[in-house]
Amino acid sequence: MSISITVQLNGKPVSAQVQASTSLVDFLRDQQRLTGTHVGCDTAQCGACTVLVDGKAVKSCNMLAVQADGHAITTIEGLANADGSLHPMQAAFRDCHGLQCGFCTPGMVMSALDNGQYTDDIVHQGQTYAVFVRSPHAHAKLLKVDTEAARSAPGVVGVFTGEDFVNVGGLPCGWLITSVDGTPMKEPKHPLLAHGKVRHVGDQVAVVIAETLAQAKAAASLVHADYEALPAYVDPGAEPGSVPVHDEAPDNLCYTWALGDKAAIDATFASAAHVTRLEYRNNRLIPNAIEPRAANAIYNRSDDSYTLHVANQNPHVERLLMAAFVLGIPEHKLRVVAPDVGGGFGSKIFLYAEETVLVWASKQVNRPIKWTAERSESFLTDAHGRDHVTVAEMAADEQGKFLAMRVHTRANLGAYLSTF
Predict the structure, then answer these.
(1) Distance from chain centroid for Cα 98
(2) Could you identify which of 1, 18, 188, 313 might form a hypothetical disulfide with 248, taking C-beta atoms 3.0 to 4.6 angstroms apart as the criterion?
(3) How many CB atoms lie within 10 A of CB 351?
């Protein structure tokens, strides 16, 4: 079904025929050739497709072209001044190095023009602030966490450790793998606050909640944890260490997975005229979004419900896993709101311990609690990627024709399994 629409596009009237199902982003990109508006996720999460409709930021992948009929649309191409100079917001992104890779930048610029609201911008009545106390060790027994001094510090409204969470579920992994021998992968416990052992530098051992962020930081510095350091296993290229990171995985291996006909491949390699072998490392990387991870949780005692504002790329999965698998509350009792996310690169698609702790603790202190990661804190706690050690082999005949490929990769999954 073809429908006629007329819009004011970047200050000029445009009439066009569109299908009823045509999205606004497809209309802009395919019919109007305004390709500065990008498609990043197709699920209205990432914001790369953001444009202004009557001056308000809208994710154009989530709006039909027919809905724009009679309205004014501004894309990134319509911001520059008539003399070709940049709009002040574009210039600010350039001058303050906010471009990152550039793909999402148009959407960020358009969102910022509508006075974008990020998680850290939200302040509730009676707002409190959380600071996490973190392990300096990669692997250690956690002998004791002394919080007495912190509890009596000015402004403190609550201090919690792993002892408070022994009856609270841990973070689940939502994608399970079966090993080659048919056994399920090992899924070690992932406590919200470390209990008995820490497993990476930055593992949270306590949370301090206070009236102000400064008071929370001051009180957190008074928390004293005793550790007994253990050997750290940091190189996936080396053989697994003798001291397991998790008791559930004594060999420090989560699973061994395979694809292909091993017998046929091995036979082909044995008779091949040429075999080329390559060893390489796909190095670890750390996502680095403009806005670090942030969360703000509030409990409503009138109906025993929670609201969580969180910089998350997948709020529906966040609600499902946190409510049903960790906190054991009905999903309708938890509302998860993802404001402008401020970049994610996949690192904000997971369920993390910090926001889950805040939701749980908001009921304990009966106050809203906000936490925003510092940049160095994000490097320690956001889900990392890659870190694979790989041996790849190619078998060929005398003429160089490829016959078979064989790859073995040892992948570093980190101290704990992520959501996926």
Answers:
(1) 19
(2) 188
(3) 25
What secondary structure does DSSP assign to 246-314, as a single string? STT-TTS-------S-HHHHHHHHHH-SEEEEEEEEE--B----SSPPEEEEEEETTTTEEEEEE--S-
The pLDDT tens digits for 76-85 are 999 988 898 9
- Report CA dihedral (207, 208, 211, 215) to the nearest 10 degrees: -130
Radius of gyration of the chain (CA): 26
Whether residue 177 contacts residue 259, with contact meaning beta carbons closer than 8 Å, is answered with no
- Please give the Cα distance from 389 to 161 (Å, whole number): 36
How many C-beta atoms lie closer than 10 Å to residue 150's C-beta?
Answer: 23
- Reported pTM: 0.83
151, 165 Cβ separation under 8 angstroms: no
Handedness of CA 130, 131, 133, 138 (dihedral sign): positive
CB 349 within 8 A of CB 293: no
* pLDDT (tens digit per residue) in 101-160: 888 899 989 988 887 788 999 999 999 999 999 999 999 999 999 999 999 999 999 999
Classify residue 382 by its DSSP letter.
S
